[in-house]
Amino acid sequence: MKIYLFVIINLLFVINISAQTSRKEVQLSGFIAEKYAISMTLAINNDDVVGYYYYEKYKTKILLEGKIVNEQIYLQESPDVSSDFTMGFRGALTASGFKGFWLDKNRDKSLSCSLEMKSEEIVNLSANAIDGTYESEYNSDSYSGHLKMKKISGNFYYFNVSVGTASACTGNLKGIATFNGAGNGNYTGKACKRIDFTASNNTLELTEKECNMHGMQCSFEGKYQKTDAKDF
């Protein structure tokens, strides 16, 4: 069982990693159930999608992660390590916008959703961009730490950090980090109060505060070295 958990952590960062030099960014706005005003921002690379949306009333960004399959887009809301779709958006994304549903499978809830396309552009990634796949400086036969960064738009980045040890201490967290022009970023949340990101020479150093998203014998802290400047 210990070996199995350790292997799973590694597989999370081997599957669906492809080199990209550009992506599409789209901005949408509209309504859920014709009465809840929302705005949505998505970064699209081939079939992979990350982004966020927020209710205009609250302005709190909610992470989205998903896929485009057979002209249908699936966006998991607040995704965790599981790939099962439980809550989020499903429908058709076209040049004019999104039409489909917001779904909550656990509560058997389905609400119509219609969003208008506000902007769509192709964004080129620079060689020294924060985007990429990183490995922990502590990686060994008994420890595995991985970090994936994807720019969503502006100063906002999707991140996915996972750690695992041969003794079955594991952790995983996905979220939205806000970066400044100096290459420093941070994430704040409920289960993990704060993570700070410091970028330097294709390296990201993470420090955490009151984070309960991993076991007691492992953490997300440390330096992560980019494995490929074009990995996305």
Strand content: over 45%
Label the overall shape.
globular
Number of strands: 16
CATH architecture assignment of the largest domain:
Beta Barrel
The radius of gyration is 18 Å
Ends distance: 31 Å
- Secondary-structure-derived class: mainly beta
User: Kindly state the mean pLDDT as a whole number?
Assistant: 89
How many separate domains make up the residues? Answer: 2
Strand order of the largest sheet: 1-2-3-4-5-6-7-8
Low-confidence stretches: 1-9, 11-19
How many helical elements? 1
In short, what is this structure?
This protein has one helix and 16 strands. It has 232 residues and is mainly beta.
Descriptive terms for the model:
single chain; 232 residues; mainly beta; Lipocalin; 2 domains; eight-stranded antiparallel β-barrel; eight-stranded antiparallel barrel; 4% helix; disordered N terminus
Q: Which helices and strands appear, and what pairs or packs with what?
A:
Blueprint: H1 2-11, E1 22-32, E2 36-45, E3 48-55, E4 62-69, E5 72-77, E6 87-94, E7 97-104, E8 109-124, E9 132-136, E10 143-153, E11 156-165, E12 170-179, E13 184-188, E14 192-200, E15 203-211, E16 222-228
Overview of this structure, please?
The protein is built from one helix and 16 strands. A hairpin with a 4-residue loop joins strand 7 (97-104) and strand 8. The radius of gyration is 18 Å and the shape is globular. The chain folds into two domains: 22-124, Lipocalin, CATH 2.40.128; 126-228, Beta Barrel (Lipocalin), CATH 2.40.128.120. The strands form two sheets. Strands 1-2-3-4-5-6-7-8 form an eight-stranded antiparallel barrel. Strands 9-10-11-12-13-14-15-16 form an eight-stranded antiparallel beta barrel. By secondary structure, the chain is mainly β.
